[in-house]
């Protein structure tokens, strides 16, 4: 059996879910050519991941599909059950839907990106509520809180301290993602930030890729 990686599961858009999902997919494929990576985009209105892979021609083997209804998640399950080398990456929509909530139940590893504003930190309560509603494999999810749009390392320390109760309850605090133009510019041409030439951004994503590699 392969693994299902979900990016998102929150009530807000614009926190970098699609950026992280697409960068993880591309850099994981580059670092682990033994794996078969497939992306599933649940945001039927924007389909940011779909747009990214339509621009991309470097690794055409990465397929992206749009999931519109909960029953279509069976396609994800069938894909990962077919081989222990199959890795599904779900790019969740920035809203609570039947699909996003149902995806929790089949997820093995969850990355929760968030902006480090007071409003976003309060929204983490909604993330946790969604996770607690999960059933099936959702009870064994490994979850990483991923601060995004960081402007100062000192700020990360303060936020980490505020999230101490979550961390103590089992949530891991993932590597932060700083504000970089390369993430936006590279996406427009279907490249990961590392392929675009931003080594520092590549290191930020590599931490997340490494966490996945440890589990497959």
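Q: What amino acid sequence fits the structure above?
A:
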């Amino acid at each position: 059996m392969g693994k299902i990686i979900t990016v998102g599961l929150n009530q807000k858009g614009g926190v970098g879910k699609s950026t992280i999902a697409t960068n993880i997919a591309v850099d994981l494929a580059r670092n682990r050519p033994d794996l078969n990576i497939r992306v599933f985009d649940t945001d039927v209105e924007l389909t940011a991941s779909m747009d990214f892979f339509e621009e991309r021609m470097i690794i055409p083997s990465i397929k992206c599909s749009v999931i519109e209804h909960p029953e279509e998640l069976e396609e994800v399950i069938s894909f990962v059950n077919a081989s222990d080398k199959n890795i599904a990456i779900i790019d969740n929509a920035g809203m609570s839907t039947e699909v996003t909530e149902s995806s929790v139940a089949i997820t093995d590893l969850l990355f929760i990106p968030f902006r480090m504003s007071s409003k976003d930190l309060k929204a983490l309560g909604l993330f946790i509520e969604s996770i607690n509603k999960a059933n099936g494999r959702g009870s064994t999810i490994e979850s990483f809180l991923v601060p995004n749009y960081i402007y100062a390392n000192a700020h990360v320390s303060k936020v980490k301290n505020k999230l101490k109760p979550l961390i103590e309850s089992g949530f891991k605090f993932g590597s932060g993602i700083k504000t970089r133009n390369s993430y936006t510019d590279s996406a427009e041409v279907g490249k990961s930030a590392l392929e675009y030439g931003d080594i520092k951004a590549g290191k930020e994503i590599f931490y997340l890729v490494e966490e996945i590699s440890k589990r497959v």
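Q: And what stands out in the fold?
A: The chain has one domain: 3-213.
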